[in-house]
Amino acid sequence: MSFPLLTATAVVPAVGAIVVAAVPAGRRSAAKVLALAFSLITLALAAVVFLRFEPGGDRYQLTESHAWIAEFGVRYELGVDGIGVALIALTALLIPFIVLAGWNDADPQETGNSRWRPTQGFFALILMVEAMVILSFEATDVFLFYILFEAMLIPMYFLIGGFGDRAHAGSDQKAAAQRSYAAVKFLLYNLVGGLVMLAAVIGLYVVAGSFSLTEIAEARASGQLEMATNTERLLFLGFFFAFAIKAPLWPLHTWLPNAMGEATTPVAVLITAVVDKVGTFAMLRFCLQLFPEASKWATPVILVLALISIVYGALLAVGQRDIKRLIAYASISHFGFIVLGIFAMTSQGQSGATLYMVNHGLSTAALMLVAGFLITRRGSRLIADYGGVQKVAPVLAGTFLIGGLATLSLPGLAPFVSEFLVLVGTFARYPVAGIIATSGIVLAALYTLVLYQRTMTGPVKAEVKTMPDLKPRELAVVLPLIALLIFLGVFPKPLTEIVNPAVEHTMSDVQQKDPRPEVEAAK
Amino acid sequence: MSPTAVHSLWTTAAEPLDKIQAPDIEYGQLAPILIVVGAAIVGLLLEAFLPRRARYQAQVTLTVVALAASFAAIIALAQAGYGTTKANVAAMGAIAIDGPTLFLQGTILLASVVAVLTFAERRLDPETHGNHIDSFVAQAASVPGSDSEKSAVRAGFTTTEVYPLALFAIAGMLVFPAANDLLTLFVALEVFSLPLYLLCALARRKRLLSQEAAVKYFLLGAFSSAFMLFGIALLYGYAGSVSYARIAEVVDGSVRTIDPALADTMGNDALLLIGGALILMGLLFKVGAVPFHMWTPDVYQGAPTPVTGFMAAATKVAAFGALLRLLYVVLPGLRWDWRPVMWAIAIVTMLAGAIVAITQTDIKRLLAYSSIAHAGFILAGVIAFTPDGVSSVLFYLGAYSFVTIGAFAVVTLVRDAGGEATHLSKWAGLGRRSPLVAAVFAVFLLSFAGIPLTSGFSGKFAVFKAAAEGGAGALVVVGVLSSAIAAFFYIRVIVLMFFSEPKADGPTVAVPSAMTSTAIAAGVLVTLVLGLAPQYFLDLAGQASVFAR
Fold first, then answer.
1. Which of A335, B66, B242, B434 has its CA 20 to 30 A from that of B183?
2. What's the Cα-to-Cα distance from B522 to each of B403, B442, B450, rounded to whole Å?
3. Which parts pass through the membrane (chain B) (predicted)?
4. What residues form DSSP beta bridges with A66?
5. Would you give the distance in Å from CA A51 to the centre of its chain?
6. Are the C-beta atoms of residues A266 and A101 closer than 8 Å to each other?
7. A110 Cβ under 8 Å from any chain B Cβ
8. Would you say B342 and B326 are in contact if contact means Cβ atoms under 8 Å apart?
9. Which residues in B lie closer than 8 A to residue A183 (C-beta atoms)?
């Protein structure tokens, strides 16, 4: 039996979570170092997965399959396609930065209580989320995926509710109340989505008699498994509802600004850059593969929702006074692009969407983490409390600018490639949608540059005069991310190479071919 | 012994007395029940003859040993194949020894052992007058607040009668799901109900509340027993027999000979429908299904918490066992009549339990309403009317019992000056004070909420899957919706424990002895094992899902 590489990528952080949680209260720094070490081992394993994956090979590689709960027809089945590999790489890459960025965020304010170990809990929960997210990218069994999809809510919930942002305008009590409100809202939204999906999962089993993604997809492709049109549509809606909440898509997005605003910045990055990707990933992997006909049926509505997300998210971002909420609304706009790319049903759109998931993770992480460093220094999240930071902390301002430019998809930075692909892919099939979506880019320039202008330029505010520049630990977080953004901006081939074959498979699942260019079609 | 033989025995009863044959009793197969009954009687004798000081030790030991021995007997029977190939009807047709019986009896016994451990806990309260005290009243007969009560407390009395009472209740519960005729069913019901009424009244603190709970439980329980007895009488009039098999045969029309004495009534569908409905009502009362749930919150709140845990787990198991047997063995021919009714009851139970729980401010009442919602989920599995339905219900009951007992055991730990601090506001910040206890309780709550990787999810998935396969897709949708509602209040408690600042005058968490710790640990262990690797137990439940008739 070969080494279970995929299992290892999830087991390492899970073991890390247990080890970190067991560190005694007095040894906080040991817990941090251990957390970082485990996240780096995971990264190394993810790199092995990335290298061992052969783009031209089978659709699902490095597969593992073990009996698990025979009674339910559930198997422990793992396998990755190019999309999964890209997202595993993204997750494993971001977690060390998140750990490093949150180094001191969870230290207890009072040290009297020897049993209260928030630091250990914080890092253990982050590693636990990492394990579940990675495994959910690998699961090819619908039930296994569902379990992880739901179970990851619990550690996320404790991360949001238990470790709030200390830079809060109101009193401690008000902060605690808002935080637990945000955590409960996050959990309820996602739990409701998950439970609706549970009904659909059970329904799928009743119809298909199996939970194996590959088996069901094969049976569907070969015509052995016929689904009544209405059944397929209902099941599709059950799945899509859950993923649309997770992603999040307008009008199910309202939990995200709360959660991202109240959580500490590393956790906010974890939500938007890592956990939410499970939603869009699952649309590609489960909605399109299992329910191709229903996906096509629902496409017009989903495209409209995606367009609304793009424009509405961007408009609200323009109007925000709170830095973190601004980034949250910008993310909603970007998730609109991802969904648009997926459901445009062109290979450019879908590989663009996959790249977008990775690039959005990197760019939001860069922007959000620098914003977090800024907020920690000043102790406020309000844009109006800043001004002229670039004069006192030029490196901070510079990295913030690059993060912002990446968010608005400046050519030369990675998000440009993906946004361009999504727009081209959409335009090929739905020109009007492509045109409307383009307005999102314009608005993105507006909210990012205005944010930069208000906080970083202008006269130096009295409160920021003594603001220190980025420390080495913070530089270690930001610089690699920026380097990656630039590298993938000029040389996206390593990613496109592994993503494209996977997208071709998905396209053939939904029996779609790219529309021919118009010039050719006119002949 | 075949059912017709039972019948012929009855008809020959009119002949001369010397022809009566001695009944044929399979003592080996009844051993689990007999051991518990025997131990209960020995317990009563101990109570009468042992000096007061020695009783506690003797009773606890006897009870645990008896339950363990009884469980060993179940294992031996199951090993010998009585759950599958040798499933039969014993004791002259009164008791069915088959898969569901053995599985449910095993579950009841294990749950009871764990519950009895929480009964025996004496470390939670500080010692008064040099005596260890437990959750039970010093002297049940003394008036609350009176001098005689004070002197009983000073003398260090304890109500060790709870152990024989619990044993009698357990014996009744063991018979209840195994009963194969309506009279045995009724006798078993009374045998386990009466000791429970008493146990409810025996709380050491808040005695008036406890006694009120007992009276409510007794009155409503007596009503439901009466309804059930009336139903039995009507069903006898319909079928001319109280035997399950015989009634089933009359229902599906395979018996055409009419008993001359019952010529007027036999085969009268009105009797069948009304009688069946009344018996169902009695069972649904014990299960705590809406609209027969009114007693649950009051009784759960008033009863001593260890007893609440015991009732919530073991009674539910026994009652669902009896319900399954009644619907699957006696009334399968009537399923087009009872399924719509049970549909409605399941839906109302799930929704009402979940919705009303939201407004609760007392942790014990909250758990009571949660148990009502769970009864609704289990009913969804009952309605499936497939072997999968049976096995999913069996599995759910096993999973649920341990979580419930564990959860109530945690409730006994959180105390302030007035005893247990059950008001939710007092639980604020518990996660800061005692992270371990709060984390354990959070695990139980997540399991109640049916979050994946806990036993609650496995159970819920099993019943919903069975229901969907049984053609009750709409029920599944209502089920997931009410799960979502229910999740809200479980999460509220978690929020309270972890995200609220502890209050200055908040409760303390008592350090329990090994007994309560064992009970809680068993709950956590079962929750996680059944959540991560439920395969073995699902198999077991699957093998145990065929009824003997």
1. B66
2. 9, 15, 18
3. 30-50, 62-82, 102-120, 162-179, 185-203, 215-239, 270-295, 307-328, 340-359, 366-387, 393-414, 435-454, 474-499, 511-533
4. A76
5. 22
6. yes
7. no
8. no
9. 495, 499
Burial of A231 from C-beta contacts in 10 A (0-12 / 13-18 / 19+)? middle
The residue ranges of DSSP E strands in B80-196, in sequence order, are: 88-90, 95-97
Answer whether A71 sits within 8 Å of B446, measured CB to CB.
no
B433–chain A nearest CA distance, Å: 8
**Which two three-digit tokens encode residue B490?**
């479980």
Q: Which helix (H) or strand (E) holds A75?
A: strand A74-80
ipTM of model: 0.84
- Do B495 and A183 make contact, defined as CB atoms within 8 angstroms? yes
pTM: predicted TM-score of the whole model, two decimal places: 0.89
Do A160 and B471 contact (CB within 8 A), yes or no?
no
- Interchain pair B534, A195: CB under 8 A: no
Phi and psi at residue A202, to the nearest 5°:
-65, -45
| H or E element, residue A18 | helix A5-21
- Which residue reads 């220190």 in tokens? A468
- Residue holding tokens 């208000």? A454
* DSSP class per residue in B520-542: HHHHHHHHHHHHH--HHHHHHHH
CB atoms under 10 Å from CB of B126, counted, come to: 9
Statement: residue B130 has pLDDT above 80: no
The reply to whether residue A69 touches residue B535, judged by beta carbons under 8 angstroms, is yes
Percent of chain B residues topping a pLDDT of 70: 96
d(CA B528, CA B522): 10
Q: Give the A:B interface size as CB pairs under 8 Å.
A: 100
**Where in chain A are the domains?**
5-515
pLDDT at A523 (0 to 100): 46
Residues 6 or more apart whose Cβ sits within 8 Å of residue B18:
none
